[in-house]
């Protein structure tokens, strides 16, 4: 029987191009969050959407549904739709009343559409094809594969999104976990009034621990001191057989100690690292009274590193290694789902296509193509030509909101995403907020924008 290659990755690959994408917006969350941390108050009594945005009370819908699993009660609170974006609040609390760790959270929280029976059938087909090896092209032609992928994508009602993410934080008394779930769908996605569910799992906490490593570096150095010094140029020709287990994920293969041309003492560590543990581990060097020594790390091969530290007048006998272990520790791997109906009412959004060309103070000519305004964000998109050596974007020097009464107020850049093609052609999308992040855009009272003195009316 023929076996099939994986299909889901092909479904998830929506486009293939040479374009480079990156974002400079400050984000938070364990996932791919598009929400800035400053948007929200850290006070629990102001965490609800209705508390955060009283001006949007007419558009905020109470969900108030709970599920209990793994000794935790998870409750969906409120939902707010603004155009193609949905924002949901939720809380978690331990059923026995105990406290959460200070850095607690869930590893995954996601918002998904409830599939129809046909969608569930298509999902089963995709899972079945994903479970075996081989190539689907041994059985089907390229045209047939394209038809199959199109059918599965449509039947599974796969929603294209502009961004999604979540953020969790522990209340000041440790009794509750507060969550924000946010997803922005592609334009014209039909999701209002549809059945959705939130899935979550992997209750745990973020750990970051530093501790001294008990190791006799002088003894390890003595085992190889008569051999050649290993460098970036000759490391493949010399056997490194020390094999000292420095930590769970770090093996020390060689300790080198010598004096450079300036009379400074140098210590080198050649290590092999692995990522097969929950924790990420690294080590640092200290001498004297907890004085850190900064080194240079060079990658030799997969998992093999040459790290060099200039000790100055300090000696190998004074060197201490400090291990840092960090990662997400799961304390309960149970998962759950909770269904709800997506609201149908949405806060207003205005958008307009424009053809505006301005030159900023960096003498970069910027073509602004579109402007979108919602209660929480002003988005300006367009393009310019510039070689981004340091990946620093360009944007107008000043943007002011023009209110209906003729007054104006300056907005400041919150974040941006850039896509580069052809080496120097840049498409950008920049978001703005008022200087006071707690202030929303009252869309119905805004007439347009002033961009470096040029007025754009909605």
What do you see in this structure?
The structure is a single chain. By secondary structure, the protein is mostly beta strands. It has 5 helices and 24 strands. The strands form 4 sheets. Strands 1, 17, 18, 19, 20, 21, 22, 23 and 24 form a 9-stranded antiparallel β-sheet that branches. A hairpin with a 2-residue loop joins β14 and β15. α3 (117-130) packs across α4. The protein is globular. It starts with 7 loop residues before the first helix and ends with a strand. The model is unreliable at 1-45 (pLDDT under 50).
Shape descriptor: globular
Poorly predicted spans = 1-45
Count every helix, treating DSSP H or I runs of 4 or more residues as helices. 5
Question: Which structural category do the helix and sheet elements fall into?
Answer: mainly beta
Residues in helix, %: under 10%
Radius of gyration: 28 Å
Q: Biggest sheet, open or closed, and with what strands and sense? A: 9 strands, antiparallel
CATH class of the largest domain: Mainly Beta
CATH superfamily annotation of the largest domain: bacillus anthracis domain
H and E string:
HEHEEEEHHEEEHEEEEEEEEEEEEEEEE
| Termini separation | 61 Å
Give the CATH topology of the largest domain: Immunoglobulin-like
Q: Tally the beta strands.
A: 24
Query: How confident is the prediction overall: mean pLDDT?
Result: 84
Which percent range describes the beta-strand content?
over 45%
